[in-house]
Amino acid sequence: MWHSLLTADFLGNRHWVLTKPLSYEIFDFIDDSYLKIWQGIGASMVLHKHDYSLLITVPKGYHTDLASIARPMWVAISPWDVARAAVVHDMLYGLIRAHKAHLSKTRITALRDQADKIFRQGMRDADPKIPKWKIGICYYFVRSLGWASIIKEPKFNANKKTNKR
Hints:
Blueprint: E1 8-10, E2 16-18, E3 22-26, H1 35-40, E4 44-48, E5 53-58, E6 63-64, H2 83-99, H3 105-124, H4 132-151, H5 158-163
Antiparallel strand pairs: 1-2, 2-6, 3-5, 4-5
Helix pairs in contact: 2-3, 2-4, 3-4
């Protein structure tokens, strides 16, 4: 369940900065085995044990390109279609990237898998609804190519301070 709309200022050249926090809550989030690691690397995540809902918050001031979808693909899938889920996903990947030197390959793989699943569920929970075929394509691409964004430098240097404690 999305608790807020995406509210951001456009800085030009596919560069946005959140003017309000963005919150997303996943229900029945059973796999909390990596919650302490996420929290330890700076993720704002709160697990409510009574219903196993996980509240994830992207902070105000976070810099994003919304969704990294190539411009020719905008005919079928625009960044607006999946923007909120993409921003949460980008924040989680950014945290992995910022702390990869201190994480084992096994943990990086597990955190990336969780981030991708959160992205997919965020798209499923979007309102207005995102067609299943768009969700499938976006999820396929992050599973196939997401590793590349973990190894490269962040797109926006301003997030270096946001992603580190």
